[in-house]
Amino acid sequence: MLKQKALIDVLGQVNTSGVDGSWLFNKDGLLLAYVGSEQKEVASNVSAALLASVWTALERRACDLRESILVLEDSTIAFTLVARTMLLAVKAHKNADLGMVRAKLHSLSTYLEQPILSISHDLI
Amino acid sequence: MSSKRKVLLMGKSGSGKTSMRSIIFANYIARDCSRLGPTIEVEHAHVRFLGNMVLHLWDCGGQESFMENFLMSQKDQIFKNVQVLIYVFDVESREFEKDLRYYQSCLEALLQNSPNAQVFCLIHKMDLIEEDKRDETFKKREADVLRYSELAATPLGERSNAVCQCFKSSIWDETLYKAWSAIVYHLVPNVNTMEDKLAKFGNVLEATEVILFERATFLVIAHAVLSPHKDPHRFEKVSNIIKQFKLSCLKMGSKLDSIQVRNSRFTAFIDTFTQNTYVMIVVPDGKVSAPMITMNVKNARKVFEAIETKQ
User: Fold this and answer.
1) What is the pTM of this model?
2) Which of A80, A103, B10, B167 is most solvent-facing, going by the fewest CB within 10 Å?
3) Inter-chain contact A4–B298, Cβ cutoff 8 Å?
4) Domains in chain A and their CATH numbers?
């Protein structure tokens, strides 16, 4: 079982010093949780779907894709695979240190890996 | 393990026994029932309920000549090994006293032949009574029925289950589902385990309500209410509405899989659950993530499948 509140608590922990949003969604682009400042132009579920399609497009080109970083006009989005079926993404301000953003992304994904694996493993 | 339960459906002719059976178990809709003719003698129907439980419905014709037969020559055959008797009264009947006397004789025969049977009475066709008089009429009829039940039961000593439960019902609204859900509730083993698990499941999801529906009939089998709600008839309304919707889906050649309803104050999910059930989850949050709920439902499925197979 996955508790929405608990998941939101965990995701919210990375939202410090420049990082202002984190998503967890599956490869189909369906959003499980978003924590962070509500974006003005794009709703969080739409951005999750966009990121998922970017991921699948990249995955087709590169085998064994681990992580990707999008550098945008005013922000950076880093995302990675968790538990084979889910994607974890964090969004940071463009001035944020990229190494810090990656470190946060990876420690969060390691933390989530086992729990999510155990619940999604049952489903297959 | 398959368990067979004999369910007797009795009552005066034209009181609506076959109609309600057709709506609940044979996917009729209420207005189709005008096509039904009178039942001759006994119609047997085997209904699979919750997968491995078979309800053996004996729909007994209600004309007086049949009734006499049932009570005299076929008494043993009819009233042996009965688990449930459902007796249907027509609320508008002009000869209610006579109906009651028949009821008393049936009950006596039943108690002699299957002393452990449970008895339920339906005061049917409530839609014919004006809305503000329904409660009053029902109370009066119920008192009569209970009085006659006691009359039949007292000569046989102390028996608590003969003093039956009465329900008001009508095929035109949700009361039919309420009555049948209550009856079925008594037939399903493990209901308590299921409700325990449902409550735990609801806690994890932070839901206000989790309801389990039987797949074919859409009757409520079990429910967990985690915070009170003001409408006591909501389950039956949902049963009624979703069943109609499911039938329309079938007409289009497609199968109902899941439904999601969302507004700013709540989200409701109806999803296929185990082989024999649908589950409905109400979460008091308009923004809750649907994939998360679906994932949790899938995870819970195994636990409930295990409970069902244990039956």
Assistant:
1) 0.78
2) A103
3) no
4) 4-121 (3.30.450.30)
Structural domains present in chain B:
3-187 (3.40.50.300), 191-310 (3.30.450.190)
Helices B175-187 and B234-251 pack at an angle, to 10 degrees, of 100
Given strand B267-272, what is the order of strands in its sheet? Answer: B220-225, B209-214, B277-283, B267-272, B258-262
What six digits make up the tokens of B168? 């008001």
State how far the Cα of B157 lies from the Cα of B79, in Å rounded to an integer. Answer: 19
Tell me the chain A residues in contact with residue B296 when contact means C-beta distances shorter than 8 Å.
1-2
Instruction: Give the span between the Cα atoms of B77 and B117, in whole angstroms.
Output: 15
Residue-wise pLDDT for B256-301, tens only, equals: 888 999 888 889 999 988 888 899 999 888 778 888 888 888 888 8
The answer to whether B299 faces chain A, any CB pair under 8 Å, is yes
Q: Cβ distance A24 to A109 under 8 Å?
A: no
**Which pLDDT score is estimated for A107?**
93
Contact B251, B278 (CB under 8 A): no
- Kindly identify which residue of chain A lies nearest to residue B288, measuring between CA atoms: A4
Which residues of chain A are at the B interface, by a Cβ-Cβ cutoff of 8 Å? 1-5, 7, 25-26, 30-33, 119-120, 122-123
* Maximal C-alpha separation, chain A: 41
Check A31 against B291: CB less than 8 A apart.
Answer: yes
How far apart, in Å, are the Cα atoms of B36 and each of B17, B29, B67? 11, 12, 20
Instruction: Tell if the CB–CB gap between A4 and B288 is shorter than 8 Å.
Output: yes
Average pLDDT along chain A: 88
Residues of chain A with Cβ-Cβ distance to B301 below 8 Å are none
Q: A2: nearest CA in chain B?
A: B296
Instruction: Tell me the residue ranges of DSSP E strands in B161-276.
Output: 165-168, 209-214, 220-225, 258-262, 267-272
**B-chain residue closest to A27, CA distance:** B291
Give A27-59 as a DSSP string: TT--EEEEEESPPSSS-HHHHHHHHHHHHHHHH
Q: Where are the beta strands (DSSP E) in B72-160?
A: 84-90, 118-124
Distance CA(A78)–CA(B178), nearest Å, equals 53
